[in-house]
């Protein structure tokens, strides 16, 4: 009997989830189609350079999903399902602090971490956890009601979790069990037809639309699936031309002539979806909820800790100048700040230690007998090595919060006089029951391994830097 490996399970799950979400949200299918058209046009126009940050087959197939859960127990169950797919929790994101609106969640992303696994299928899921213990959003009475409601539901059937644990232990499943696992996993993220308690949902919605989406229903669902595109500005124009309402901005770094870094994201606006609503008298009526949207992303180069600090500093400059010049478009201000302060080439990013690359010996390197330099910058400048950019595989809390906010119907309620409950990566690791990995450490390891290989091949002693 044939057996299905974890990466094949991951690829199949991503594809089936995409098919399911396309049936539930037809505008998502339009988004995927337009993304594919843009990618094909960019490839024709730019040739091989279009695949600098990933092959066209990877870029076109790439997706990330987003889900929301209510309790650490539910998060542990999610982790078991994704572990079966070779996906690990990476990064800690606090959207409570990144959002101006009330977004009472902390998040991580489940994804592959090894370079080979990412190349096979890089599917990732941004996963948010509600924070009922934060008094800025929930008073003691509402917290108690919310926690009781969440404790009384089951998002993932025991059979799914048992199959997930087997796939994790064996790193594969027999074909029949794999098919059953995929069926149950996709079904767990479908939109439920069960009527929503209208009064309870609206109680939470007054606090936060995100809180209502998590804690106001008895199931979870995919909030968005995100294709990857090579020219997000062109995609934004084409979607608008098709009459699909997009959010006001593209989140993340500005469009400019230099290297793409980190992540740029946008989406079409959340659609009003018909949902059955149960009223206080027990009758069921037809209502509409606006919680799901279609996001799209363009990925750039992973920045080092120093590069990320520069990125955050530049965002601060952009905010200041936008406040000082309200009549000037923010994207113009952002582009000017970027062109003044961000290195304009991959070589400059590498030489200044601002971005992550893997390094490889050049076949046409000097062969005149001279000893190679010991520094990466000089090895690059003198033509001994070439630098291949490492794609940013993670997320930006401010951008994620910006997408959330742009698709909310209201700002919600936040009591600024209350002290917020503290959460960090260590807390989240304990809640999940497995380590939340540091994305910077993952990129650093990949870069260091390539430098160690270069040093060995050149006969250099000591580490390259």
From TrEMBL:
An MF annotation (GO) of this entry: dioxygenase activity
InterPro entries: HGLS, YdcJ_bac-like
Recorded superkingdom: Bacteria
EC number: 1.13.11.93
CDD domains (alphabetical): VOC_YdcJ_like
Coiled-coil portions: none
Keywords: Dioxygenase, Iron, Oxidoreductase
Cofactor section: Fe(2+)
Pfam families with a match to the protein in the record: HGLS
Family: Belongs to the 2-oxoadipate dioxygenase/decarboxylase family.
Name recorded for this polypeptide: 2-oxoadipate dioxygenase/decarboxylase
UniProt organism field: Streptomyces malaysiensis
